[in-house]
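task queued by scheduler; priority normal; single chain, no ligands, no partner chains; default sampling; output format set to structure tokens
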Amino acid sequence: MTSTQKYAAIIVGAGHAGVEASLAIARCGFPVLVMTMDTDAIARMSCNPAIGGLAKGHMVREIDALGGEMGLAADATGIQFRMLNRSKGPAVWAPRAQADKKQYELYMKRALAAEKNITLRQGQVTELLVKEGVCYGVRTEEGETFLGEHVILTTGTFLQGLIHVGEEHFPGGRRDEPPAIGLSESLRGHGVELVRFKTGTPPRLHQKSIRWEILEEQKGDDPPRPFSYRTKNFKVDQLSCYLTHTNDKVHEIIRKNLNSSPLYAGRIVGIGPRYCPSVEDKVVKFPDKTSHQIYLEPEGRDTPEVYMNGFSTSLPQKVQETAVRKIRGLENTEILKYGYAIEYDAAPPTQLKHSLETKKIRNLFLAGQINCTSGYEEAAAQGLMAGLNVIRKLCGASEFVLDRTEAYIAVMIDDLVTCGTNEPYRMFTSRAEFRLLLRQDNADERLMFYGQQFNLISEKTFAEFNERMDRMRQDIQELKTKKIKNDTLYQYLKRPEVSYNQMILNKLHFRSLSDDEIHRVESEIKYEGYIARQREEVKKYSKLEKRKIPANLSYEEIPGIGREAKEKLKKIRPDSIGHAARIPGISSCDLSLLAVFIEKKAKEITKP
């Protein structure tokens, strides 16, 4: 049976990537079909119910500035908010929220239901419909056919998902959810390469079985700061998290049972995340470390489940129980859900353009964990960018590709499509060359203009942004005119021992800004020299990015470039000299020969 309606876009999967993609396209007035295996699992938090963190928090604020939903959802359902790294420089300050996992799902389900242009259907997509290299729809396991001008796959960990607990393994896309079968075969049939990746999750503990009184309490910030620039009158009754540690007894139990770990017994072939390792990995790879931090984090206001952050494991259930009960405060704990590892199919992202459209199949986009990434925030950012590029195609416009100098989102996508990854990719501030320009507090200044162009940021919100920028500019001008002895307050504030709030307390200046605006002004002034230096570096970077490479360039014709470099250039097909320079294995000599060849070709074309 074929549906009579043709959709502007079909989104396969309703996780964090699928939600952002579908909302963006629908809010721009285009009909969207969202196909999901379970309509009660919209934006499900299958691992830690938290949003943000180091670099990830930057991306959530960028998603918000572009008009995405994740920041608003985190603000509406958060149960604890913290700004991480406050003792360090402003480039690495990072917002993080512990969310109520069920309320977060319900919030996102309501958001989809509220969009008149979204049709939500439950079903399993098993086949892509492709003709002459163009994707035009999907087919389900029930034989239903749905037609769409574009298809975005956001399948998470479901493609051929296989769950491991000890010596047991069974098909599953998530705990108690079936895997997606058939779609992997369809992708391979159309020439898309797939690999096996692995991730995992820790046990969930019963709240009442934990000895909270002997653990170290971790409170939220007072006052808490929201993610979204659009959140008003922000108030939240915050819940605490608690800190404990593993110990030698725990480590000894794990070592004795490594032969029953699917990871170390060779039953898992997928590559796991280096930066979020299992507790088995920690014990093996750091043998001299006598303890590892464990954060006990509530999963919601109305559930007894507590997330055991730092203890991801796929050891047998009995071993998990024994090891967990050797941890301080957990001696009598009850495990509600056991940890597990999951293997799944993912597509190496070098097969994608920067728009996240596949190079081999037109109108097919991939976003989220299918692109070898990890994390809700990375997935949501990709989903939004895929959605924005579908909108551009629907409008007959050029691709929407952010620059590495503009956003962490751009750093991530450029890393993925240029370098690929041999492990689940996770965003870090260290991945960005210009991180002092890409602070979490100035995402609106960097990106809100784009959100407004797509009509995903309202005129009112954009006007508030402009007013905010005017207030800060005026305040900086005032600081440049007011004096204390021989210095202006602007110069005085550059001193390490001086803060903006001290100037207010000493009645040298009057408060006209919010706390966030004060922090932002102070950062701009104190780090002015470093920021100016990075802006100069951006200019040099931009020159290389402006030196475009023709899309149809024949790399075989370039004399002097080695075979390996030619193969990499043909595979990635970089769009600029700057892009080519970021491909691993491309030397400065290769770049020089490439630039000379392009210039020579350009002169031949312009000859009369």
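post-processing summary
- The radius of gyration is 25 Å.
- The first helix runs from residue 16 to 27.
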